[in-house]
Sequence to fold (804 residues):
Amino acid sequence: MPIKRNGNKKSTKRTGASARKTASRANRSKAAARIQRDEQGPLGWLKPDWDSAASPLIARGAARTGPHTTPVPSTTNWRDVLVEYRKRKHSPARARLAAPAPVVPGGQNWLSLGPTVVLNGQTVGNQPVGGRVSGIAVGPGGQIVYAASANGGVFRSDDGATSWRALMDGLDDDPTNFASASVICGAIALDPADTNRVYVGTGEGDTDYMFRMGWRVVNALPAYRGIGPVRTDDGGSKWILETSNPDLSGESFFALALDPTNRENVVGATSNGLYHRVASSGAKFTWNQVRPGVHSSVAVTQSGTAVHFYAAEWGKQVLQSNDGGKTWATAGSGFPAANVGRIEVAAAGNVIYAFVASTKGGVLGLYRLDGTGAWKKISGVPNVLYGSQGDYDLSISISPGDPNTVYIGGDRTNAYPYSGNIQRLAIQASGANYKVKTATQIGTSAHADVHTLVHSPGDHDELWCGCDGGVFLNRNPRGSGQFASQNSGLSCLCTNFFAQHPTDPSILIAGLQDNGTARTVSGPIWTHVQDGDGGYCIVNWANPSRVLVYMNGYVFASTDGGATFAQNPVLNQQGATMTVPVVSPPYDPANPANANIVALGEGSNVFISPDFGTTWPANQKLSLPGTPGDVFALTFASAARLFIGTTTGAVFRADRSGSTWKVVQIDNVAAGPLGLQGLITDIAVDWGDASRSSVFVSFGGQSSDRHRVWRFDGTKWAARSGPDVGPNLLNVEHNAIVVDPAAPANVYAAADIGVWHSADSGMTWATMENGLPESPVYDILIHPTQRLLRAATHGRGVYEIALP
Fold:
């Protein structure tokens, strides 16, 4: 999926660690005010003609019957391709890497490069951060903790979150065990009597609104769905996919609630309705839909021997079940009927709270129901949704043993560094209603975008937060306590794009979803060096002290190798998406001046700088002819030749003569046009063509046509996705592609499922799975001076494998 996150709450520049120590608060505030833009929630970056990762790919010449963006259909396609992927990975006859060059030391296995954590994160106190966490489950005593990450699977800690280990990375040895591929997590619940029994709802509910609106921002806030509910009985060593009816493959979970008197009885709130887990034949269980429609929350409470479930239907009402989840009825009366968006519920005894966002993502109100009767709106509730992102960030928890103390979480604070907005509310009666007696901000030491608030069982002094920055813990939430980072080893950072030092392979810089840009000079622990949502990065290969990074519509420059960045951007394009491409010519040490050329694509224009971003001359701006869509892919074949791909499938070649560029469209060549129209995610130069006229392109989007990779030989296009039957590419989104300059018959493609290798220029393909988690892969690069292939996963960081 992508990423620029939902709006621009952190589209503010912050200097690096050393510069921050000397920069005054006033200067930082001025920088924030200068760069911050209006926040409009998850759709704040959208405009009507944006293509999404759900955009339909259509045959050339076919009429597009609707907008470029369409909702993702609820089908079994995702599960089906996982089954096929399993078969490919475990086929004894599958192809291996060819050996076009001397083998460097090391085996043919992917190696994690981190980040296992990012230091100096964007919180008050600059605490370490991890990746986006959608759910947390805590065992009694608070020592055994599970974190369900949005795109990196489930992690477990046995020491109170001091350290973590991933549970879903190696679960692909059984090709029939579909659940092992499910690393997109939306909800989690555990049995308090047996902390090895854990339920996970796959598919991230927090991003579901984008699907239902018909948009999914490609390489911005990627929204992935899952393959249904999964379960482990042994603490994560083995996972079991449970059946659902209707099938929850292609849907997402918001929450799970487990019956405290019966661990087999679970209710799930999903994008496709409210589901109840019931016994079926053969000592198995099936999740049956008991209510249709989007349900955004579910909670359970026990009063004596009675167990009550409560659930929220998005935009409508709160429901109650008194028979274990079998039947449901409206809870209470007088619930708001207008302007209702997402609803989160919490219950303790006979007290139920509903935290409600408006249809535009702001705070509509906090409501209380005392068992029966009418809902009462609580006055004085503070605004925890300054970013109007209630469809993405909304959470509530009741202090154990004290139903008059409630914690609510939203998106961000309204002051730099725009960290987490979590407030403790003391509720008291006010006549026939309720009011907030006191509201205390306790969340600024946590990262922004709060997805879940969870207490350790029965412990009012341990409040956990899952957010875009990982896991945080407050050990004194009723007093003056602040949240502390618990992210060491929580290696679920959502990497977008990355860059490499040309000669020192240990130096990397990467753009991260909502965690800015991070850098490492050695090892898996990285350091935050820029704010916002990180995008493309460039290291000047002739002068590696110079670095450019893209962030939320701005390009920032560094002169110390990316350790710090100037406060003022060198370019402000107010970019269309977080995926605005920024590229430079290929490594060419014989011509160091070429390293200063930079191209940036935004809208239907390409901007070129001759001096590494210092200036962007007007006469170097390339405007694409016609209505080509937005530039999404750029690559230089040389300092004088640039290839351009767009969201509608247009491909252009730009050639420079002197200071003049000539742009020619090549997707529509008469000799053999490109066979698909739709989102072109990447372009790779075929280095086997000395004329630099040949390229490969990869497609994202959805299509019944499986041909996701095509090659242009300078005259005509041909599909290069493998044969119809046999070693071909799966019909999933392909996000990046690269050709090995030293052995150009070798092509590598990065997809939503796996990295793929072709040793014959795309005629046949095989998986490269050894040691690579099944998070979506967004970017791949070959190191310019080492035989290393690097892959950026959106959920498990950066990996590398040695090439022959």
User: Anything to note?
Assistant: The two ends are 31 Å apart (CA to CA). The mean pLDDT is 86.
